[in-house]
From TrEMBL:
K(+) binds at residues 250, 252, 286, 289, 291, 295. Requires a divalent cation, most likely magnesium in vivo, as an electrophilic catalyst to aid phosphoryl group transfer. It is the chelate of the metal and the nucleotide that is the actual substrate. The lineage of its organism: Bacteria, Pseudomonadati, Pseudomonadota, Gammaproteobacteria, Pasteurellales. GO terms for molecular function: ribokinase activity. It comes from the Bacteria. HAMAP family: Ribokinase. This is Ribokinase. InterPro entries: Carboh/pur_kinase_PfkB_CS (IPR002173), PfkB_dom (IPR011611), Ribo/fructo_kinase (IPR002139), Ribokinase (IPR011877), Ribokinase-like (IPR029056). Its EC number is 2.7.1.15. Substrate binds at residues 12-14, 40-44, 144, 256. It comes from Aggregatibacter aphrophilus (Haemophilus aphrophilus). It is an enzyme of class 2 (transferase). It catalyses: D-ribose + ATP = D-ribose 5-phosphate + ADP + H(+). It is found in: Cytoplasm. Keywords: ATP-binding, Carbohydrate metabolism, Cytoplasm, Kinase, Magnesium, Metal-binding, Nucleotide-binding, Potassium, Transferase.
């Protein structure tokens, strides 16, 4: 039986430059290794899901590109990765979204985005794809596209028993109606604090934040804690699941890789713990490589990494 994942989200052209450290206000800093790569949180997660899925899983991508050559090139690249790109809309007289990314020597990144065509992923486009969402086993979304459309898609999904997974990034406050429709939410520490008002500095803080999100109606809360792993809570029963230690080169898209890997692993019928371990492995590989989508591993690489880890 084929499982179906629908990803709804952004597509960006990433302009990436290596810097010794993040630039300060009013400062000019010399960078190096400038490059252009395909990105956007929605696109990254769709690519991760497509590369890491089992053969019997289908990945559809609802998104928008501009009326430009690079938008067309990105759409073609998604198709090459095995994504169903039929739902992607080209927006006339608009550019594709862009992201300006600094990558420091520490491996950390700093990102500024301009929405471009992503701003056109509205409720009318979601309505066009309503049947696609209804037929899906899971709907994976982020917050780089208009919130009203995200809420509408979640409504459609919940009404038809499609599990809604939200990666709430970039960080923002969210309406209770959206939270009540979520099967799973995957914030990092900063996003969890913005959502709940609770500072997440340790396991106790993560537990309090998770409890608050459970009270809002979210079934599974998964708070990513960077090098410490993730805090996962289901029915107010929580634990930290550690990740893998690697030397980070570039953390761009690590979280997106984790989310895409997590959802397709769950769709295979893996336990939550095993799905998180698989997602940890994929994310660990991604941070050892430069770029967003170029850093995302495939399924065979990830399974090999897990086997070597024991």
């Amino acid at each position: 039986m084929c499982a179906k994942l629908v990803v709804l989200g952004s597509i960006n052209v990433d302009h990436v430059i290596q810097v010794p450290r993040f630039v300060k206000a009013g400062e000019t800093l010399s960078g190096s290794h400038y490059r252009i790569a395909y990105g956007g949180k929605g696109a990254n997660q769709a690519v991760a899901a497509a590369r890491l899925k089992a053969q019997n899983t289908q990945v559809d991508f609802i998104a928008c590109i501009g009326h430009d050559d690079i938008g067309k090139a990105m759409k073609n690249a998604f198709a090459q990765d095995g994504i169903n790109v039929t739902p992607i809309r080209q927006i006339e007289n608009e550019m594709s979204g862009i992201a300006m990314i600094q990558v420091a020597e520490s491996g950390e990144n700093s990102i500024v985005i301009a929405a471009g065509a992503n701003a056109y992923l509205d409720e009318s486009l979601v309505e066009e794809q309503a049947e696609n969402i209804r037929q899906a086993d899971a709907l994976l979304m982020q917050l780089e596209t208009p919130l009203a459309a995200i809420c509408y898609a979640a409504d459609i999904a919940k009404q038809h028993h499609t599990k809604v997974i939200l990666n709430p990034a970039p960080a923002n406050t969210l309406p209770q109606t959206l939270l009540a429709n979520l099967y799973m939410i995957t914030p990092n520490e900063t996003e969890a604090e913005i959502l709940t008002g609770i500072k997440v500095e340790d396991e106790a803080g993560a537990a309090r934040a998770a409890e608050k999100l459970h009270h809002c109606g979210v079934q599974i809360v998964l708070i990513t804690l960077g090098a410490k792993g993730v805090y996962v809570s289901e029915n107010n029963q929580g634990q930290i699941i550690e990740g893998f230690r690697v030397t980070a080169k570039d953390t761009t898209a690590a979280g997106d890789t984790f989310n895409g890997a997590l959802v397709v692993s769950l769709l295979e019928g893996k336990s939550l713990t095993d799905a998180i371990r698989f997602a940890h492995a994929a994310a660990a590989i991604s941070v050892t490589r430069a770029g967003a989508q170029p850093s995302i591993p495939n399924r065979a690489e990830t399974l090999d990494f897990l086997e070597k880890q024991g």
